Automatic annotation (TrEMBL):
InterPro entries: PPR_rpt, PTCD3, Rib_mS39_PPR, TPR-like_helical_dom_sf. Keywords: Mitochondrion, Repeat, Ribonucleoprotein, Ribosomal protein, RNA-binding, rRNA-binding, Transit peptide, Translation regulation. Signal peptide: none annotated. One of its GO terms (molecular function) is ribosomal small subunit binding. PPR repeats lie at residues 237-271. It comes from the Eukaryota. This is Small ribosomal subunit protein mS39. It is found in: Mitochondrion.
Length: 381
């Protein structure tokens, strides 16, 4: 009997412990499920997809970001030269020959494409890029109108514009005054010659050294299409006189520019500030002697005031450039500072070109005299 009770109590305690552990296990399981559910909810709340605001990007922003990861080697030659120690040019002459030869090869390829246009009819790009295709050739059999002429003028193709204009004149096609004015400005700006295309960077760069010498020569083409076109614009207005005057002054025919100025004054036509600026720049050619040049500049400024033409920054630079050519005269320095002060009073601040002409006026070449103008300019900048 006692043994039976002992076994029953043992059995009872075993069942109670088992029941306790089962209840405890179930409580822990429920607690874990609740915590897991809360964690999932919190994670889902924290990891919610948020679409950021759109940032404006340029077409080359990715390339700029990639280029910032690579540092530039300042000791390496220019990228246009071969990266080879035996082929890298060392002297300035060899660098010039190498760059121009490379560009000459591209010119030859472009000439072949133009001469054999029938062999290059494939589409290089889609949508098509007009620059990649051979240019249209205009001759006596071409059918042209004013729209074609306007398109050629916008593309700055001087020779084609002259050809089309000649065809329209032969066919007695009457052009609008606006088209004639645009053609006149194109011919005067480029002196009836095709400009050097922008893609020929090397040739344009090496030509800059000859600009100062060519600027002093009279290379204006007299008696050409420009003169006839100007006469056909009856009566010429201020824009026509200004275009012809600026063209002549730009290409060295300052005497002819001054003649156009006198004709405009006699006709009672007021010119723009660009025309006066061109004459002020050519004062060194028109007049001999410092005092005569300065008197001529004062005369032009008085004429501007009389006609109600407001001077601009180009007027200031033109005056300073002329005064810098008279730097041997002691009065040029005083007049330069007075001109700058007067233009500042009118609200026209000097530019870097203005300071350049001031330096030329005050700091003569191989002069032993020292000037504090450079320090003053640096303090202003």
């Amino acid at each position: 009997m006692n043994s039976f009770k002992k076994v029953a109590s043992t059995r009872y305690s075993y069942l109670m412990r088992k029941l306790f552990f089962e209840v405890r296990r179930q409580q822990l399981r429920n607690t874990r499920q609740v915590s897991t559910t809360e964690t999932v909810q919190e994670t889902s709340n924290t990891n919610a997809i948020k679409i950021p605001k759109r940032i404006e990007r340029g077409p080359t922003d990715i390339l700029k970001a990639l280029s910032n990861t690579v540092k530039r080697d300042y000791t390496a030659p220019h990228y246009k030269y071969h990266d080879d120690p035996f082929l890298i040019p060392t002297s300035n002459i060899s660098k010039r020959m190498f760059a121009l030869s490379q560009e000459s090869g591209r010119k030859a390829a472009q000439w072949i494409r133009q001469e054999h246009a029938d062999l290059f009819q494939h589409k290089v790009a889609d949508p098509p890029i007009e620059v990649y295709f051979p240019r249209a050739v205009y001759d006596e059999k071409s059918e042209v109108d004013e729209t074609v002429l306007q398109k050629v003028i916008e593309q700055h193709r001087v020779s084609d514009a002259l050809t089309i204009y000649g065809l329209l004149e032969e066919n007695s096609v009457e052009l609008s005054r606006a088209t004639k004015q645009s053609l006149l400005e194109l011919l005067c700006y480029y002196n009836s010659q095709d400009p050097l295309e922008e893609e020929w960077i090397e040739e344009r760069w090496f030509r800059q050294g000859n600009r100062s010498r060519e600027k002093k020569k009279n290379v204006w083409k007299r008696g050409g299409v420009v003169e006839n076109l100007f006469k056909n614009m009856s009566p010429p207005d201020a824009a026509s006189y200004t275009a012809l005057l600026c063209g002549r002054a730009q290409f060295g025919d300052v005497q002819g520019a001054y003649q156009i100025y006198q004709e405009a004054l006699d006709a009672g036509i007021g010119l723009s500030a660009d025309a006066f600026n061109a004459l002020i720049t050519g004062a060194s050619v028109l007049k001999e002697g410092h005092e005569l040049r300065w008197a001529f500049i004062e005369e032009l400024l008085a004429s501007m005031k009389q006609q109600g033409v407001s001077p601009n920054l180009s007027t200031l630079n033109a005056i300073l450039e002329t005064l810098s050519s008279m730097s041997s005269n002691k009065e040029s320095q005083k007049r330069s500072l007075a001109v700058v002060a007067e233009f500042r009073a009118m609200g026209i601040e000097p530019s870097l070109a203005s300071y350049y002409f001031l330096l030329n006026t005050f700091c003569q070449y191989k002069s032993s005299m020292r000037s504090a103008i450079l320090v003053s300019i640096l303090n202003l900048l």
